Amino acid sequence: MERINRNKLTSKNLIAIGIYNAVFFALVLIIGMIVGIVPVFYLFFYAIGSIALGPVYMLIISRSPKKGTIVISGIIQGLIWTLMGLWHMVIFTTIGGILAEIIANIGQYKKKFYMVLSFVVFILGFYGTSFGVIIFFSDYYIKLSKELGGKADYITSIVNLVHGPMGIVAFIATIIGAVIGGVFGIKLLKKHFDREELSYNG
Amino acid sequence: MIGNFQRQKSGLITLDPRIKLFHVVVTGIIFFNIESWKSMFGYILSMVLVMMALGVIGPAIKYMLLSLGLLFCYVVLPHIIDSQVIGSIGTLMFILVRFMPFCMMGTIIIRTVDVTELIGALNKLRFPRVLIVPFAVTVRFIPTIFIELKIIRDSMAIRNIQLSFYGFIRKPFRTIEYLLVPLLSRSGKIAEELAASAMTRAIDYPCKKTNLNKLYLRFIDYVYILYIIITGGMVIIWD
Amino acid sequence: MGLTAIALNEFCYRYNNIKKLGLDTINLKINEGECILVTGRSGCGKTTLTRAINALIPHFYEGQISGKAYVYDIDVGNEPIHNVSKKVGSVFQDPRSQFFTTNTTSEIAFGMENLGYDREHMNESIKIVSEYLGIEDLLNRSVHELSSGEKQKIAIASIYAMNPSIIVFDEPSANLDIESIVKLRGVMKVLKEKGHTIIIVEHRIHYLLGLVDRILYMDKGKIIEDMSEEQLVNMKDTVLRKKGIRTFDLKNVPVNVNYSQYTNKKTTGEKVLEVKNLKLVKDKKIILEDINLDVYKGEILGIVGPCGSGKTTLVKTICGLMKEQSGHIYINGEQIKRKKRMEYTYFVMQDSDYQLFADTVYNELILGNKKENYENHLIDDVLKEFDLSHYRDRHPSTLSGGEKQRLTIAIAGFKNHSIQFFDEPTSGLDRDNMERVSDNLLESKKQGKSIVVISHDYEFILKTCNRIIQLEQGKVVDSYQLSEKTKSKLLKQVKKGDV
Predict the structure, then answer these.
(1) Which of C255, C233, C306, C256 is CA-nearest to residue C495?
(2) Judged by CB atoms within 8 Å, which residues 104-163 of C form the interface with B?
(3) What is the pTM of this model?
């Protein structure tokens, strides 16, 4: 019988990565639909959503604690957004994925500190997309309103707010949210999912 | 619905999914670089034509009307009514126009690309197996997860577990826990069973996988490529 | 033919992390072309036996082998799964999780694509397979549109297209409705006629009457008996019961003799639930029309009917999970609007995995109940009644399928709703567990609860229900008291158009 390399991603791992990333994405969509009602909340989306995304992330790693899992997850998330037209996401999620992978690797995919840190970085990858988009559009907005000859001045001031203090607040909030989500994820994993698979019946 | 890749049966033409992906990338590059509303509208128009040719008529009309409406708010309205609010709304609407091509591309792909077709395209583009297998599974199961979530929501209601905004505010962790536990245990079960089914159908067999559906570029695809390049170029020049 | 297709010699298997042997000294020979039924209690090792044949052990479900398992001349224990899969095809229980793609034709081609067959060969195989299995109308469709029976057919087609000599079925009827089970039998018949070796693991064995050559009865990992169909048919029901085997010939199943004492006293005509002229439309299709039904206090009503006839939709509507277009629902004489219905009704869904939220069995029972409504010893009483006491502090996910099902019924037993609804509470359960569920429901009934059960489990219905309502295409087509005289009506429904 051939020697199985314990660190190679098996089909079982790949399929598990697939399913849990489907859950991850579905949750992103749903949370997005709920939070996105108020436009400003958009920046805080990942801060709030991490509480649900954290456990999923931890489960992905727990079911496939091997090199490549996180990078693949990042790329997949980005690719799905590409299918919806927003291909720039892939760049950010992949970078986030690579960095998150490195961190998780250092922690051998099980040390809690590194797992949480890995998740924070992963989420920041996503955050990079929305933040980048907001900044881009803010600049653009200001330019446009100048074209209109100052008819949009007072909203411009709100935009400036986003640029400055609000942006920083959102960034910090996202990190805090991700830390909370990551820790919650690990706790939930331990409470419910750390059992061996029990489909041996029969 | 995302992932519910239903082949549009009433298209005039069918196009290779790889070229559609190329279109997505080109759209992204172009649209971030043009500024005048005229060239934006021109590009949107070119996309509406593609949509209609592919048979996605309803959304094509909706997008057309939507972009006209949004542009109206920016271009015409502020000159008629002189007010801060109108001016702000106008520019906001115009920013939304910027999102349009992405959504349109998304609609084209979701409506006209079959999942299996997509996987075939990725295979041909030499994407590594470690990426294609999970990606295929993810895309395949996103709609299923939504269905599962709905069932879980019903189940929580029956058990008198609060799944509402207020419930979330009062006890965020508990609410998410109750939502995730059945979802993740179901997902785990599905993952295992799917893997067993795939393994016993030789997914690990070490040979070059064949594809039932032939994926090849036809004349119309080359026309499409040209079309994308020309419209893209024109729009940039016009700007 | 005489050629040995499968041979197991002194085969033992222990799963990692489980103390007891999954398979204990199995010595078995199966000849090419035989059709074998493997049955026994939950946990007896029948599924593990199939895994020894399709190589899922030891590679997928890891553990230790001793002894040898051969498929033709392949040593299964030492061969990668993909090589074995050329000779052994596997059909699993849940059609939902067997689909890799979203298109039926692509799914059928999946295995062949993996094996690198060329396009011509694949198209030819798809043509042959769809002809033999009668699925031409299911080709090139979206997987999401199909019923579970249709999905199962596609799953079988996918395996058949690889043309394995041996096909293993692991409880294939568990998630199917009556009509689909009949069609499943037809498919198995075709496969048998073509000379394939077929191994079927099942609890629900009645549909295999007349199809199987040998029956293996397993217990605690061993093959206890190896009998012919005749021997099984002639076995007395008391013996079957002791072994935990379900009835093979359904004509022999009696209506629950204890009924008389329940029917006379409790069915006093007091209506707990009244449904009048209910109509429900979804996606422009009429799902329910003109539904009129009553549920009396202290009765167990069975709702039967083919798949898609609207049974689950009806129950969901009564419970307030779905909205009706027109009609009225009265509970205890009062008309109750949709949102309030959940306070009076309780619904136990088919799949227990959607209904377990907590980290211990004890916590599961507490969940959703106000603290004043329960006291510590009350919960322990319930646990005792449902034989779950020793699981008190265990995580629900560690329970077996039958035990999880019991737990969901225990949770229902604990609730005080006057009407309780159960959707296929015995699907996939072996005899012991099926009878347990029946006893539990009868006990609830004794306590004054009214129960409505959706089921197509004939033995279970006969043991539990006193009245039947038959639905077809969203309408009530029949309603009768269950008795020795009327049970043939039900049997006909269950055996629809079959051998």
Answers:
(1) C306
(2) 105-106, 109-119, 122-123, 126, 142, 144, 155, 158-159, 162
(3) 0.90
